[in-house]
Amino acid sequence: MSHDEVIKVEGLTKMFGDFAAVNAISFEVKKGEIFGFLGANGAGKTTAMKMLIGISHPSSGRATVAGFDVYTQAEDIKKNIGYMSQKFALYDDLTVKENINFFGGIYGLTRKRIKEKSEALIQELGLENVANQLVGALPLGWKQKLSFSVSLFHDPKIVFLDEPTGGVDPITRRQFWEMIYKAAHQGTTIFVTTHYMDEAEYCDRVSIMVNGKIEALDTPKKLKEQFQAESMNDVFLKLARG
Length: 242
Description:
Elements: E1 5-16, E2 19-30, E3 34-39, H1 45-52, E4 60-65, E5 68-69, H2 74-79, E6 81-84, H3 96-106, H4 111-125, H5 140-151, E7 158-162, H6 170-185, E8 189-194, E9 205-210, E10 213-218, H7 220-226, H8 232-241
Parallel strand pairs: 3-8, 3-9, 6-7, 7-8
Antiparallel strand pairs: 1-2, 1-4, 4-5, 9-10
């Protein structure tokens, strides 16, 4: 694994009985890259991500994340990554400030560091007036942006985002992607799953999964050229149809 590669996957497979949910996928992700992991619902995206973040054991193959082995160093992986799940990850019955403090503690930050970063984060997101309100009272878009910011709170090398913009309006989606660009520009690697094909255009490189296999992997521009397509949605449709 070179210093530029923060994720390296070779033949990674996940079996459920006789069914291959993830079928011998191979790829690598470079430092600071926005890597799109695309596919329809049921294609195997989330199953693959769960293996990479250390919460699901592969059936076979090899993978390293942030230099750590997915089989033997899952706890080290968890300490070096951020993760935002498909379902809202923060606690609705805690305030904005309480959520930030809670996750800062889980990530092992000192109280002093949590206080400093918490104040800066609340100011950056413009949440000063609602910092002591329950998160459950916030609009979904604000919840998602807060959840993403909390996943970055401990300055991880890699952040895994599972369908992060599902259910939010187009303006909030664009704002969310501006936050992703900023994190990547600062050196954080972004691994993002999405079924919004227009969001693939925002990624440096994209892999497309169909029925557990990676059927295409390249920059959006090269994929459109390869498949003689006007958009990434057209590329996806061509692959889905076989």
